[in-house]
Amino acid sequence: MHRTYQEKQRVTVAGSSPAGLAVNERSGAAYATDLANDRIIEITPRARTPRLIPAGDGPLSIALSRDGRTAYAAGQADGALSLIDLRKGIVTKKVPTGAGALSVTTDPASGRALVANRTDATVTVVDELSHMRARHAAGPVKSREAFVPGLPCRHGACW
Fold it and tell me: How far apart, in whole angstroms, are the C-alpha atoms of residue 49 and residue 121?
């Protein structure tokens, strides 16, 4: 048996160029990076119109903190991870990661943000609490090479 999915709602932001997408499972808010306009488009279940939030230079990918209050946007153009306070709608900090920041994700266990830097061929790990770069690994990462004291090891990698 095949399910049929139907579109429930479509939100259009004129002139936007959506790239990355993240959903806050608690609130139902959806966040899309807008690569062309250096911002995040926030869509909440109750809002009638999208909220536009600044997001650094060339945001390509987005992830949310464990509590859903901070968005992490990987800036392809500036090679940085922008930390965005979603309540205030502002960039609170930029952490240099490397050229071509392509993708960001968060580790649900530690809360750390991991950024894949395409041009530099590196992965940058950013600590959730200090918002400081905890590790910058180049090339193929093996578990011993990626070991950072105090960071958990899982699936052969130690972040």
Answer: 38
